[in-house]
Automatic annotation (TrEMBL):
InterPro entries documented for this protein: NADH_Ub_cplx-1_asu_su-1
Pfam families for the chain: MWFE
Membrane topology designation: Single-pass membrane protein
Source organism (scientific name): Colocasia esculenta
Location of this chain's protein in the cell: Mitochondrion inner membrane
Positions of transmembrane segments: 6-30
Family affiliation: Belongs to the complex I NDUFA1 subunit family.
Alphabetically ordered keywords of this record: Electron transport, Membrane, Mitochondrion, Mitochondrion inner membrane, Respiratory chain, Transmembrane, Transmembrane helix, Transport
Keyword presence, Transport: yes
Function: Accessory subunit of the mitochondrial membrane respiratory chain NADH dehydrogenase (Complex I), that is believed not to be involved in catalysis. Complex I functions in the transfer of electrons from NADH to the respiratory chain. The immediate electron acceptor for the enzyme is believed to be ubiquinone.
Protein name: NADH dehydrogenase [ubiquinone] 1 alpha subcomplex subunit 1
One GO term describing the cellular component: mitochondrial inner membrane
Length: 66
């Protein structure tokens, strides 16, 4: 019985890991329900601004006839 002292730490670690998974999935499903699609990971305000800028530049280039 002396060699199983680590076993008493497994249950709390399992509970903590399970709660982290629940919290992450809750964020995913709440965002999906609110916006209709999953959140794109790593897409912050800067990325959105650069996408708008790139789209505008491409439209200006194609409108110029090139």
């Amino acid at each position: 019985m002396a060699k199983l002292f680590w076993l008493e730490a497994v249950l709390p670690l399992g509970i903590i890991a399970g709660m982290l998974c629940v919290m992450g999935n809750a964020q995913y499903y709440i965002h999906k329900a609110a916006h209709g699609r999953p959140k794109h990971v790593g897409n912050d305000v800067w990325d959105v601004a650069m996408d708008r800028r790139d789209k505008k530049i491409v439209e200006q280039y194609s409108a110029a006839g090139n």
